[in-house]
Amino acid sequence: MEKTKVKKAQICLFVFNRLAETKKTVEALQSNFLAEEYHLNIFSDGPRSLQDQKKIQEVRDYVNLIEGFKSIKVLESDENKGLAKSIIDGVSQVLKLSDCVIVLEDDLVTSPNFLDFMEQALSYYEDDKNVISISGFTFNMPSLPGEKDYYFGYRASSWGWAVWKDRWNSIDWEISDYKAFIKNKEEKKRFKKGGSDLVRMLRNQMNGKIDSWAIRFCYNQFKSDLKTVFPTISKVSNIGFGEDATHTTGATRFRTKLDVGNKRNFHFDKFSKMDKNLVKEFSHFFSSRTIILDKLISFIRK
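Predicted structure:
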């Protein structure tokens, strides 16, 4: 490990109307070894309809009483921004005050060493311009955990992630070159190295069928040929598979084993090349066949 250079990141937590999941997310984060050293910024989105108001207020009442961090700031929106705008605005706001940020949503349970992994990776790869982000989540893949603490991926994860100010500020959220890209077969093929769903998701985003910050982030990552650093044992587990989940209702392929060890010091290496086996295993989770099978299993279990 190299000497820490990066200033300690601030944490952003985005919440909405799920009190039970929010409590589990916060309690797990409070149990992190480094929790008391971190500033926590909680962004509470506004209601989509009158039915949301009571649940949102319950969440706000709860988060305004939590303790266990260096400082806690709760920012409540009167309007419903939606997740994409909430994250883009919130992360941008915090990065005006910090060199890097760690981001969580209200349905993510973290291991006690989550902040250790994120902080050390942020420090190690701060000046490695091959890396755009750090992920705390990883899939259960046949080749993992292996001998290393990390591996590199072609696409970012939106479940417990971190980014530096300079990488974040370079993102073109408008995807200004989309028209040229969507006509280029070779470019589309290269983009799919991170998963066969990426081109379809970007097309849906640009056609207004979805509203996702993550697909735009991943596209910018691809255009700049940057990598994401993943742990070989997941430090994040998604618990948001219930009826109130926005994007992952019933999904099974995203379930992973959470790190239950107490390891706090992690070893990293500068990027040299991709592990072909891990690239193949990772992309499998986003193949059309896997997605269809996942939906079938979820339907049978209902």
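Summary: The chain has a mean pLDDT of 91.
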